[in-house]
């Protein structure tokens, strides 16, 4: 999750070269004009929906171990414009290419360095109704960024791999994304949204964002930007007996913001950053009162030791549940 800084302090996005233009040119073959945005919010879950798989937390943690190793081999971080970021992107892309996703690397420049977004489309589904799940892949320069945001990136990757493992064939089209330069001011996701045609923006029926979902002193926070998406996540957590609260700490500070500004229905999950956990929250969730949700937020100790496995497991499964529910 990016630092909350004035717009004037953010790195500017320069003119960029896009590696592939599928999403910037409106070139989905045969795609009809989308209906008005009011009609494109995700439909309520159907009773006949295919059951979402359980995401093995061991698999998600294995991706985090890879991100940690990549950072260790590349100056200790996976930040924008650094070798560790590109190695992280190549790791994710390799996993997706191997199981049949169509991947697109989109490049941009910020702060004099080249950045990259990775977009992965699962073949099939209605191209006029696209459900997206995404996370930012970059870390800050001070550390490996395993909770922020290896946790979201690893869970989104594992959900995509679960789609392939189960050969899931939803009614809607599924797209997954890993954003660059989020820590510099949502640069990658904003570039992606701004370079979509109006028609292709309108085809996105929902964007789900996952930024910090394994905080070591976790809370269970749900975005309240869209009622259908919000209720989908709440239903999952109610089903496992976990109370939730509305997410406020990260409002406008992660990659859902450009989508929301463009009129796309958005939602997501969060386990907390630098805010302090209250006694009332400890009564609901356990953990330590008076301590930050993540004491290693944006620091060098944000390593694989900085993850709460239970939070990572629950949020990963909630991610999969929402992807399956909202894409049917």
UniProtKB/TrEMBL annotation:
<comment type="similarity">
    <text>Belongs to the peptidase M28 family. M28A subfamily.</text>
</comment>
<feature type="domain" description="Peptidase M28">
    <location>
        <begin position="117"/>
        <end position="322"/>
    </location>
</feature>
<dbReference type="InterPro" id="IPR041756">
    <property type="entry name" value="M28_SGAP-like"/>
</dbReference>
<keyword id="KW-0645">Protease</keyword>
<keyword id="KW-0479">Metal-binding</keyword>
<keyword id="KW-0862">Zinc</keyword>
<dbReference type="InterPro" id="IPR007484">
    <property type="entry name" value="Peptidase_M28"/>
</dbReference>
<dbReference type="Pfam" id="PF04389">
    <property type="entry name" value="Peptidase_M28"/>
</dbReference>
<keyword id="KW-0378">Hydrolase</keyword>
<keyword id="KW-0732">Signal</keyword>
<dbReference type="InterPro" id="IPR045175">
    <property type="entry name" value="M28_fam"/>
</dbReference>
<feature type="signal peptide">
    <location>
        <begin position="1"/>
        <end position="31"/>
    </location>
</feature>
<protein>
    <submittedName>
        <fullName>M28 family metallopeptidase</fullName>
    </submittedName>
</protein>
